[in-house]
Amino acid sequence: MTDHTVTRQKSKITIWFLALPLFFINFFVFAEHLIVVPLSAGISVATGLPPVNSGLLVSIYPLAAAASALILGPFSDRLGRKKMLILLCLGFSASIFAFAWDDSVFTVLAFRVLSGVCGGPIPSNVMAYIGDRFQGRERTKVITIVMLTFSIASIFAVPIGALLAELFSWRTPFIAISVAILFCLILISRMESIKTGAESGNVLRQYVEFANLLKLRLVRKVFTLQFFMIIGLFGFVPHISVWLGTVYGFNATQIGLCYMQGGIGGIIGNNLSGYFINKGHKGRLISVGSLIMCVVLFFSTWNLLPPVFTGVFFAGLLFGGSIRMPAFQIILTEIIPINLRGRMMALSMINANLTMGLGGIWSLAFLDMQNGVLTGMRTVTIIGAVTLALIPLMVLNLEREIKKSDQVF
């Protein structure tokens, strides 16, 4: 066996040793947030929340996450990703456990907010750690692996969580995830700590640096692109449970099966994305994935297929999303140096989560409950499709700006 072969094998072992803890923690964070979607109608009934407002259970989480990132963003660079992940995981586990044991509307919504405060920043810290630790093809590989968590959570966590809720209680899947997060902490604690170069210095100055990132033209264009990637889609997502339940009579398990089909499409898209990113097609992947989602979202509410095939639309949406998101995450990690990367990822999370929350809110103006059926979703999907159709133009604009930049990291 040659020295080169031994080095490659050690590199693969290192990648998997570090990728697995990040994979599992991301998996359970996404699983917890995704499970709320099919269970939101049942939770609203159990707690007295009006069904037409059940989308708030989904949309207030990202709004809380955005506020959390604004406060904690500099501490990702100051404390390091490992310490931040440990603290956030402890808070996330406690908040979803409390959420699972509550009964009133006010406190259930309050614990959803606390879950967003603690859980929302976890994925951005995961991505920042990957950006710190890996470069080049290794960075692409680990990001692609970790980005699979959303699709795999859709395939396994959502239907299993929905089934557990049907068999026992809506509280059961959240209690299980709370315990699983604590086990993930054991893996996180064994990870290597990486210095960022921002461990010392004036905290106020670090907050100023945080805000100054938005003065960079390139950063503003990245976040404008991200806004349009999300805003229309998340006018649709928070209301899926009530829509499928009132229009097609789907229960939580059936909605979970739709997510499972979506996850399969996501895995296929994710694997294609990793291949084409290594060929240098990051911008094109964002454009193509968004256009696929545009078409699928537009036709999703036109009743073109029998209800049994509703999962096809989920598969199309997650296929398009999984094509574009690894490419976008790599762009984020490449344009900012390590000492600012945590704050850049926090800003990205603020932008993404505020946009997701706003999506759940703007769409309420078009929705109504008539004779026990949620109406207005077709209008929401048309608006969402238009926002996705604009993305290729924004990608071209962003790519021109990246070429003008002096350096990527």
Total domain count: 1
Low-confidence stretches: none
Percent of residues in helical segments?
over 70%
- Major beta-sheet overview: 2 strands, antiparallel
Count of extended strands: 2
User: Strand order across the biggest sheet?
Assistant: 1-2
Topology:
Blueprint: H1 3-47, H2 56-79, H3 81-100, H4 105-119, H5 121-133, H6 136-167, H7 172-189, H8 203-212, H9 217-230, H10 233-236, H11 240-247, H12 252-277, H13 282-299, H14 311-334, H15 338-362, E1 368-370, E2 373-375, H16 377-389, H17 391-404
What does this 3D model show about the protein?
The structure is a single chain. The chain has 409 residues and is an all-alpha fold. It has a single domain (3-404), classed as Up-down Bundle (Growth Hormone, Chain: A). The model has no long low-confidence stretch (mean pLDDT 87). 79% of the residues lie in helices and 1% in strands. The two termini are 34 Å apart. The protein has a two-stranded antiparallel sheet with strand order 1-2.
